[in-house]
Amino acid sequence: MGTFLRRILIGLLIIGILAFGALAWLNWQVQRETVTPLQTLNGQGNAGRALTVLNPGLSPFPERIMTAFDNGLAESGWRIDQTTASSETTTDFGEYDLIVLVSPIYGGQVAAPLQAYIARAGDFGGTQVVAIVTSAGDPKEPMAHTRDLIAGNGGSVAGIFGYAVYQPNDEEGNYAGSNTDRAVAMAHDAAVGLVQGLR
Amino acid sequence: MSNSTPLALRLLPHGLTALRLALAPAIFELILAGRGLATAGCLAVAMATDAADGPLARRHGVASRAGAWFDVWTDFLVIEAAFAGFAVAGVGPWAVPVFAALSFALFAATARVTPRFQDPVGKNIGGILMGAAFAVVASRDLMLAEAAFAVAIAALCATMAGRVLFALAGQASSAATPGSTLPSIHSRKAPPAVET
Fold first, then answer.
1. Does the beta carbon of A46 lie under 8 angstroms from any beta carbon of chain B?
2. Residue B161 resides in a domain
3. Range(s) of the domain holding residue B169
4. Which chain B residues contact residue A57 at CB under 8 A?
5. What's the pLDDT tens digit per position in A126-184?
6. What is the 3-state secondary structure (H, E, C) of chain A?
7. Residue B179 lies in a domain
8. The pTM is what?
9. For chain B, what is the domain count?
């Protein structure tokens, strides 16, 4: 048993050292801004114009969700400008009908670059804002926190959506595929439904 | 093997390993379904059986090379099921299941020439990887989940690099020393041939 306990302790020590280093590196990655130029989706769309601001995070899931949501807008005839949250992201909202913010949740909050952007954008020039968050577990609390963050800066929240990675998104069984595939389909349909509500 | 040991006790270690093997497909499906807590429960059972089957086999005198390989393969399949599940769901890197497969192949290929290799990471790699998978689903935080993936990749890289370097540097001298042919991720060592 002594050898067994020693192995457990050595294992825990190794895991602790590796985890500490990994967390430090990941935290730096999450805090770092990603600057990308505006990319336009469905440039001929004339039903409305949206600006989507993504905080990419550490996995491809938030971007998959953003793409699905934007495809839903595009299929509804909207033109979408996509970019990432940074100090260079536009705060000129005059030509937009909708601002879409997408971010993973780390430590219960949207990632730092998007928080900074929300603070800089203030009331988003009166344009309605949709927030989409991705989380490990239940997204309800992060959704409420994000709503408060936007509203606290004067923004008008038209909708907020949350999708979990390690908790079922589709308890009713309306969609097919893996949990993340269902979330992607739900994000697409959320955009279509939102646009119908805005009309 | 002691004839005085009741049959049920002699079968218990193999039964625990078989239970862990049966959990592998369930873990894969639960991850795809986004059932984080259920996955964490299955991984906790897998880790508990992994910790218990080896000592029980030795205590009841049923430790064998075949049992050790059954244990190793079962660990490998549970780990692959978990991390392939994360990758297929698009929430984890493919690097972990790919590196785990490479690492397993490397252990099997070099076990004869590195019988005396002191590799604390490799010795515990099964537990480290199962623990990392458990942390991914149990942490309920994406940052901690990503850290667990990073730990898994770092541990696999460390043990593979160490084993390759040791095998290259010490092949000649190690070949002269008969020793274990088991990869170091086993937890149920056969008594006559154990790694240091």
1. no
2. yes
3. 7-174
4. 142
5. 899 999 999 999 999 999 999 999 998 888 899 999 999 999 999 999 999 999 999 99
6. CHHHHHHHHHHHHHHHHHHHHHHHHHHHHHHCCCCCCCEEECCCCCCEEEEEEECCCCCCHHHHHHHHHHHHHHHCCEEEEEEECCCCCCCCCCCCCEEEEEEEEECCEECHHHHHHHHHHCCHHHCEEEEEEEECCCCHHHHHHHHHHHHHCCCEEEEEEEEECCCCCCCCCCCCCCHHHHHHHHHHHHHHHHHHHHC
7. no
8. 0.83
9. 1
